[in-house]
Amino acid sequence: MQWRALVLGLVLLRLGLHGVLWLVFGLGPSMGFYQRFPLSFGFQRLRSPDGPASPASGPVGRPGGLSGPSWLQPPGTGATQSPRKVPRRPEPGVCGPAHWGYVLGGRDRGPDEYEKRYSGAFPPQLRAQMRDLARGMFVFGYDNYMAHAFPQDELNPIHCRGRGPDRGDPSNLNINDVLGNYSLTLVDALDTLAVMGNSSEFQKAVKLVINTVSFDKDSTVQVFEATIRVLGSLLSAHRIITDSKQPFGDMTIKDYDNELLYMAHDLAVRLLPAFENTKTGIPYPRVNLKTGVPPDTNNETCTAGAGSLLVEFGILSRLLGDSTFEWVARRAVKALWNLRSNDTGLLGNVVNIQTGHWVGKQSGLGAGLDSFYEYLLKSYILFGEKEDLEMFNAAYQSIQNYLRRGREACNEGEGDPPLYVNVNMFSGQLMNTWIDSLQAFFPGLQVLIGDVEDAICLHAFYYAIWKRYGALPERYNWQLQAPDVLFYPLRPELVESTYLLYQATKNPFYLHVGMDILQSLEKYTKVKCGYATLHHVIDKSTEDRMESFFLSETCKYLYLLFDEDNPVHKSGTRYMFTTEGHIVSVDEHLRELPWKEFFSEEGGQDQVGKSVPRPKPHELKVINSSSNCNRVPDERRYSLPLKSIYMRQIDQMVGLI
Ligand code: DMJ
């Protein structure tokens, strides 16, 4: 009798736990109950804006009896596997909230479990408390960096020390690609100070950057990392300082003379050698800031690294009136684009910059490709060049055709919930059964194009993983239902998507997600002098590293999520985030080309749309106009002869095409 009571007790306990998970988080039990639902989340209980909610249910078997999750099946096998129709894309010239057509929680919805749990359930005091917690998180990390690490690049938060490039081991790319001996964390954090309205610290930090940071360093860094973390931050802070409206409070700097813009220019000039002597136009991945491309350098680059430079390089060009930077960045995008598969339209993740051969044939949304897609859309939003939107739309369609698996709609229909998998770029065949944590940015991008319903689904999948581990493992194997790579370096992608989904839907569910993220960061990653990388998401052991994106992105998005009245979102579509979370204002100035013609490989159009043939090499010239800023950079400030380096650069590039 006793053992029967024990078994009955255990069964009741399990059912009770199931019920609690379902009611509280919308998360069903994961393993065991639903074999084909690695993480069963309750989003099928949400109603589609156009129709009634599907009945709450567990996974439903697909007709045809295919076994295993439908993510394993190639696209087009069965009713739930046909490539999904992509929602109507924005017309050129229109992007933003106007396209955020789907809003959760329509007025006619009846109460359901989800609504009971979340709707209206986030009181203003709690929101203010969470905003202050996010601010406190930033302040703790920033103050400790300033106290123990500055002027070095990063903070080692466990031992309260600074960290710079690993000179002893040049092959330590994990460190050396990012740390250039240029006070990285301070530079990367500038606009977060402004977004949080801390004008005194912003002003102090800007002055410190101007007075102490130099790029004349014998550091070999990754072009991409230097661009998104440093160049992007300098440009963002420059725009904040010079903004006549000053929405964040007084962020002006007394006697500011465009120093940050000059510094951005200096850095970009030092990165330019990466674009020389490349047969394809795709840049070398690394450059030495003093000496250019190292002789023994690698000819292989990831697509995201080479093809996500256009936002920062384009802003710089347009502010300076110098087409060089945008020209090289755009040429790299187009070179990569032209190497996409004719059959699938997909790109791989690693390419040889001289031969144009794909070394990594994996196509996915995460590492190696993530920001490539992001910058096609964001370049269009910023600069209004139609070709960027066309490329983005075509890429998005290929992603839907080959990467997306699972049922067609997020909220209804049969089959597994949608997931984006990694496939071979030429065949579309599944390459592995993991997704990486970087991919969690994608729902945020989907929000920008109005594909909110799909964004909700993908975000929920990642949130379910977060709920299980209190962090996102770097790689999660959806077939084994377990992490493949266990560390979590304080990445922002999930909170970035959470913030953007909250802005699109205003559904308090996303505030609960943010609160969860905040609380687990506090619980598992806070150490003596900051926040530490999680070495192992299961045993929660830590590593002594706090990457600069923790302050520039993770804390910023968390703060913005809870700061209802922040000018970043109060001003409608005025701001956009770079891939490093730096805010840039979207305004007409950046859509004007300060130079007359814009050079594509075939030629281009002038500002009134008249065709302009591509000029001959000797006709190319650098144009320094002062239309968008008060002065052109003073050449004497730099050790490199600017004009001649441009000319050499352009001659070489043109000669290679
Ligand atoms: C950041 O440096 C940027 O978001 C980049 O695009 C990739 N991811 C890291 C943080 O995870």
Automatic annotation (TrEMBL):
The EC code for this enzyme is 3.2.1.-
Molecular function (Gene Ontology), one example = mannosyl-oligosaccharide 1,2-alpha-mannosidase activity
Give compartment(s).
Endoplasmic reticulum membrane
Q: Which Pfam families match?
A: Glyco_hydro_47 (PF01532)
**Ranges annotated as biased composition (Low complexity):** 50-60
Q: Which GO terms describe its cellular component?
A: endoplasmic reticulum membrane; endoplasmic reticulum quality control compartment
Q: Tell whether Metal-binding is among the UniProt keywords.
A: yes
Cofactor(s) named in the record: Ca(2+)
Question: How does the UniProt record describe the way this protein sits in the membrane?
Answer: Single-pass type II membrane protein
Gene3D superfamilies given for it? 1.50.10.10
Domain of life, per the record? Eukaryota
Q: What is its main location?
A: endoplasmic reticulum
Query: Which residues constitute the catalytic centre?
Result: 225 (proton donor), 370, 474 (proton donor), 493
> Alphabetically, which GO biological process terms does the record hold?
carbohydrate metabolic process; endoplasmic reticulum mannose trimming; positive regulation of retrograde protein transport, ER to cytosol; response to unfolded protein
Instruction: Supply the alphabetized keyword list.
Output: Calcium, Endoplasmic reticulum, Glycoprotein, Glycosidase, Hydrolase, Membrane, Metal-binding, Signal-anchor, Transmembrane, Transmembrane helix, Unfolded protein response
Q: What does the entry list as the binding residues for Ca(2+)?
A: 579
Which SUPFAM superfamilies does the annotation name? Seven-hairpin glycosidases
InterPro entries in UniProt = 6hp_glycosidase-like_sf, EDEM1/2/3, Glyco_hydro_47, Seven-hairpin_glycosidases
Describe the family membership recorded for this protein in Swiss-Prot or TrEMBL: Belongs to the glycosyl hydrolase 47 family.
Protein name, entry field: alpha-1,2-Mannosidase
Q: Which organism is it from?
A: Theropithecus gelada (Gelada baboon)
